[in-house]
From TrEMBL:
Domain of life of the organism encoding this protein: Bacteria
Positions of the EAL domain: 24-278
Name of this protein: Diguanylate cyclase/phosphodiesterase with PAS/PAC sensor(S)
Whole-protein residues included: 542 to 833 of 928
Amino acid sequence: ALGRARVNEYSVYSSTFNIETYRRHQLQKSIRTAIRRNELFLEYQPKVNAWSGTIVGAEALIRWQHPDWGRIPPNDFIPLSEESEMHILIADWVLEETCRNINQWILADLPIVPVSINVSPKRLIHGNFAETCQETLQRFGVSPSMLEIEILETDVLFDNSKIQQSLQMLSQMGIKIALDDFGKGYSSISYLQQYPIDTIKIDRQFATTLVQDKKTQSVVRSVLFMAKEFGMDVVAEGVETMGQLHFLRGLECTTIQGYLFSKPLPKADFEQAMRRRQIAATEAMTSPISTR
Ligand code: C2E
Ligand code: MG
Ligand code: MG
Ligand code: MG
């Protein structure tokens, strides 16, 4: 029907609009079936010690392999899922899949490290997330200390009592809380004391300009200093080059996450990496750890 539409200004505008609406609608419908049809899976990106290359943690990142459309990046469907209740199903699926995998690693006698999952603040507002975590951790025999919640800095800004309550409960259960993409949004220094934050993840944009830009260096230095004062851990995200690594070492930033050490890995490849527990930056740069 769209193909037969008259090409005048109005119909061009309205058909474009309809295709977009149609696409969103289709995508939303598909998210609903994605879980059922096993199209979702997780990849794990190691977090490593800046000096030794030892894997000290991992971030679980959702992947969607659609049978017709191929890989759909999380940035394309996570925001869409938040327009309906679908984001709850996704969050709870990620939680469950992560705990299921940790349980498999325990049973297989693999060394385990804390794994973080990204949780949308909307999931925290909706309620009962802490209870869901408790139930899921128990069901898979996983210690709360093995789970970390990553929450976007921008969204924590909203002075939302539900979010605050939810984070307090998670924290009291022994689940660590990380502030994701720190520095990308508004400055939230005053909120750092208000929320039970254990870890600050410095946004990738800072790694990009760190080596050349003096201002970025000051910001990163200040964040590291402040985190130390508050007793928080820091992770530098998006580290891609040896130059950036050297700089961060100089600033005594202990934990690094980025392509320099490892891309997000399919589960089997992550398990392989965990068996060795160690990734050298130079090795990671010269050998194709993951081509997927
Ligand atoms: P994020 O939580 O900040 O995750 C880090 C993103 O940076 C990931 O992209 C990762 O692949 C990418 N990355 C890591 N190291 C490097 C690097 O050295 N260079 C560059 N250029 N990129 C790097 P990804 O997997 O596409 O995820 C994008 C965002 O989607 C995430 O950002 C997170 O906000 C969201 N997301 C991913 N998985 C989930 C999930 O399970 N639930 C929710 N609610 N959001 C998720
Ligand atoms: Mg994250
Ligand atoms: Mg991030
Ligand atoms: Mg991000």
